[in-house]
Amino acid sequence: MTDRFIYDVPVRWSDMDAYGHVNNARFLTLYEEARVAMVFTAAKESGLVTFSDGIVIARHEIDYLRPVDFGDPVRIESWVSELRAAAFTVSYELYDDGVLASRAKTVCVPYDLAKGHPRRLTPEERDFLRPYTAGGSRSASSAPGGATPGGVIPGGGS
């Protein structure tokens, strides 16, 4: 069973378009907030800081299933659907009022900013990501922030 990283993201008035629902381009921002919470914030809380040294995005893919209106925060569930030597794919499902509204994928590439080129994932980075991949598991005591895996880690900011 794959652990999912669950993150609640507020929908801001600035996310809305002329039709009164979240603009398609703003979905990327919502997904980005969830990914940053997992790959940077939760990783740092687990003692892993090397992702902060650089990750670039190689690809985004989004399927829009239904409109999302202004209101309560949306819930984004994230997991690692592919883990390679020098890249990993984060998959997402976005829920609005408990209903699946969108699916997405992001291909992330660890990057050495100082040298200006991609790099391989470190063993520690792979260990952090593994519980979020198929067949991975993590005990509650080692989950980010002491939360149980897949537990809601509330979003913030505006």
Low-confidence stretches: 135-158
Number of strands: 7
If you consult CATH, what is the topology?
Answer: Thiol Ester Dehydrase, Chain A
Q: Return the average pLDDT rounded to an integer.
A: 83
Total individual domains? 1
Shape designation = elongated
**What fraction of the residues are assigned to beta strands by DSSP?**
25-35%
> Any idea what the radius of gyration is?
16 Å
Helix content estimate: 10-25%
- What is the helix tally? 2
**How far apart, in Å, are the first and last alpha carbons?**
33 Å
- What does the main sheet amount to? 7 strands, mixed
Order of helices and strands: EHEEEEEHE
* CATH classification, class level: Alpha Beta
* Reported CATH architecture: Roll
Structural class estimated from helices and strands: alpha+beta
CATH homolog superfamily: Hotdog Thioesterase
What does the model show?
By secondary structure, the chain is of the alpha+beta class. The chain has one domain: Hotdog Thioesterase (Thiol Ester Dehydrase, Chain A, Roll), CATH 3.10.129. The chain contains two helices and seven strands. Strands 1, 2, 3, 4, 5, 6 and 7 form a seven-stranded mixed sheet that branches. It starts with a strand and ends with a strand. The C terminus is likely disordered.
